[in-house]
Description:
Radius of gyration: 15 Å
Structural class: alpha+beta
Number of helices: 4
Helix content: 40-55%
Strand order of the largest sheet: 2-1-3
Order of helices and strands: EEHEHHH
Strand content: 15-25%
Shape: elongated
Amino acid sequence: xxxxxFFCMPDTERKKFTYLKMxxxxxxxxxxxxxxxxxxxxxxxxxADTPEDAIEKFKSNYVYALQEYTDSSAxxxxxxxxxxxxxxxxxxxx
Length: 94
């Protein structure tokens, strides 16, 4: 699993974004270049198997955060909230 860091242009509501794979040899150089042209680091690191998975997690923002909480918590409340959200979303799509 790889680590991805996402960057957004300010005031674009996360629509203008890019990402870097953190295990790249040029990560620090590329990160500094993005920061110099106005991008800002957005959220925490995202763990994913592929760039496509990382982008999907980034775009799903709220769902991803709940999933991370559920995965890291032994409590049932996180699972309940996450599963409730998924069910509501499924029903709204129908």
